[in-house]
Specification:
With about 150 residues, the chain is α/β, with parallel strands linked by helices. The protein has one domain. About 40% of the residues lie in helices and about 20% in strands. It has a five-stranded mixed sheet with strand order 1-3-4-5-2. A hairpin with a 2-residue loop joins strand 4 and strand 5. The longest helix has 17 residues. The chain starts with 6 loop residues before the first helix and ends in a 10-residue tail after the last helix.
Length: about 150
Amino acid sequence: MKFDDLSTLRDDMVAFIAGHGLRRMKAYVPEDVPTVIFEEDDVDSWKDFVEDAKAAAVPFVTMSEVLLEPEDVSTLLAQIKDQNFPDGDAAELEEARELLQHVGKIGYLQLGFSHGGVIFLYETATEWYDLFQELMESMTELGSIIVDDHEDE
């Protein structure tokens, strides 16, 4: 089952984690940290992840969420307009405009715990958040391309 807003799921996670006697620490584990990613079997796989954390006797789990802010979409729109000028009808521009309907929604959740020197992660995201990330990455990649118009000397 796909969600459009992960707010309810986040609330369920908070209650489930507390119900298992674990503490939550607001923290994001970045991509550059070596991790083991928990693979989802079904929509409630995150419960297995929390139960694994409890079985590992960890004192807390990390939890991070991403809420789509109006500034996030406006920044993306500006970058796309700059990259596609003068084409005001670029496909990416329309995709970015559609993201406006998701402002104020949670699109990404991450749970984590450390055990035996390894960071274990559970991540889930909405389809629109994945699209947002793809668009941001493509604009970052395009923005880093340097055009050299100088002739060889």
